[in-house]
Amino acid sequence: MASQRSLSRLFAQAARLKRAPRRGAHWAIRGYQLSLSMLVGRHCRHWPSCSSYTDEAIQRFGLWRGGWVGVARICRCTPLGTSGIDLVCEELPPGANWYRPWSYGRWRGVNAPEETGPCGPS
Predict the structure, then answer these.
(1) Cα dist from 97 to 18, 44, 100, 107, whole Å
(2) Which residues lie closer than 8 Å to 107 by C-beta, 6 or more apart?
């Protein structure tokens, strides 16, 4: 019985450690939203904002994959880039691998709400 409790405690600690990078990134993004973003002004061309989009992508896919999805979105948010509604995709593109991180993001176009498939490059 005691070994069962210690094993469940060990699994709970491992789960907390696994979530730590996501939580750290969330609080860094939240800090940006409450400080620097307020000073510079909100000029994002998309909805949701790039910081909210990146935060959601990291929460959904993890720090490495979600971070690259967010970087791709930030690169699209330029004066000559895309604009409008751009939601985080439900799943990653089929050919995406950790050693090809650029394959996680959508570098052109937007993820409009009517799309239901994975967000791959257009």
Answers:
(1) 20, 29, 5, 16
(2) 72, 75, 76, 121
Give which of 47, 116, 118 is closest to 83, Cα–Cα: 47
User: Are the C-beta atoms of 83 and 45 separated by less than 8 Å?
Assistant: yes
Evaluate if pTM is beyond 0.70: yes
pLDDT more than 90, % of the chain? 27
C-beta neighbour count of 15 within 10 angstroms: 9
Q: What is the pLDDT of residue 97?
A: 85
Q: What is the mean pLDDT of residues 98-103?
A: 85
* Residue 80's pLDDT band (cuts 50, 70, 90): confident
DSSP letter string, 64-80: HHHHHHHHHHHHH-STT
Q: How far apart are CA 46 and CA 100, in angstroms?
A: 26
Q: Give the position of tokens 């050919």.
A: 95
Residue 109 tokens read as: 């176009």
